[in-house]
Amino acid sequence: MAGKDFYQILGINRGASDKEIKQAYRKLARKYHPDVNPGDKSAEARFKEINQAYEVLSDPDKRHKYDQFGGKWQFAEQFAGAGAQPYADFRRGGTVFEFGDLGDGGLGGIFESLFRDHTFDRTTHTRGRTRRKQALEQPVELSLEEAYSGTVRTVEVDDRRLEVKIPPGVNDGSRIRVAAGDGEQGRDIYLVISVKPHQHFERKGNDLHVEVPVSLTDTILGSEIEVPTPKGKLALKIPPETQNGKVFRLARQGMPHLGNSGKGDLFARVRVVLPTNLTEREKDLFKELRSLRQ
Q: HEC states along 56-84?
């Protein structure tokens, strides 16, 4: 992300409110989400940029550092610890940093190289600002049904128990940000989601695939069968002479789209089950059928 402006990525101005930042992020995330643009590498890269910009600008402490230090905001604490002081340089239109007090060959040289020729958008600096603790990532495993409906998890951070609502539609790798307070006692938590494999359903993006066993007679003569979904069973009429492996699409019966009201589809694949333990009468009928088909 070096050299790219987080505000420009989200299409907002630098005075944008938290609500405006969130609205801009949601609009762009829906547009460039990989599930909406399957196989589109440029959309995937854009989606990653949008997420990284939002992660910084939605966090008050990170946004404060970014507004001061620009693309080098992650080095803000090292910079402050080394004793470098910013001063306003109105001729260059931004904030620059004084390294002379650090001495030759010391940290001054390192930071001078790091920040050389870099200007910043703000001309003031608040000293003594309370720093938040480092963010935590906590893995959370869900069943497919929980990912479908959304659920609640209780996490423990800094001797506190927090109840977190996980929205419908999350997938492997989804990160749910939890703001766990302000100031020195606050710590952002990111729940990193993994969804357990299901014994019946295979998930591909927001679509689900399921194999449905159907008897030989039902596939030959046609029938109404039951198809499982994450929220229950649905009736599906299959026509006569349905072939083994035939796939039926059930629109909007897949996984919810994370962050909006859309849903994927459910694809039901027919698996013909051949009869066993035939009676003599049944064998005779199959023999008769074979002779008629020859």
A: HHCCHHHHHHHHHHHHHHHHHHHHHHCCC
pLDDT score of 125 more than 50: no
| Residue 70: per-residue pLDDT | 75
Helical (H) or strand (E) element with 94: strand 94-98
Please check the confidence at residue 193 and state whether its pLDDT lies above 90. Answer: yes
**pLDDT value for 80:** 53
| pLDDT beyond 90 at 168 | yes
Q: What secondary structure letter does DSSP report for 101?
A: G
**What is the rounded distance in angstroms from the CA atom of residue 234 to the CA atom of residue 147?**
20
What is the reported pLDDT for 35? 76
- Residue 112 CB partners (closer than 8 Å, separation 6+): 99
Structure tokens at 197: 């494999």
Of 140, 145, 147, which Cα lies nearest the Cα of 163?
140
Distance CA 145, CA 151 (A): 9
SS3 content of the chain, % helix, strand, coil (to 5): 35, 30, 35
Q: Give the model's confidence band at 1: pLDDT under 50 very low, under 70 low, under 90 confident, else very high.
A: very low
Amino acid at 155: V
Report how far residue 23's alpha carbon sits from residue 177's, in angstroms, rounded to the nearest whole number: 16
Domains delineated in the chain: 6-115 (1.10.287.110), 133-195 (2.60.260.20), 202-293 (2.60.260.20)
DSSP string, 192-239: EEEE---SS-EEETTEEEEEEEEEHHHHHH-EEEEEEETTEEEEEEE-
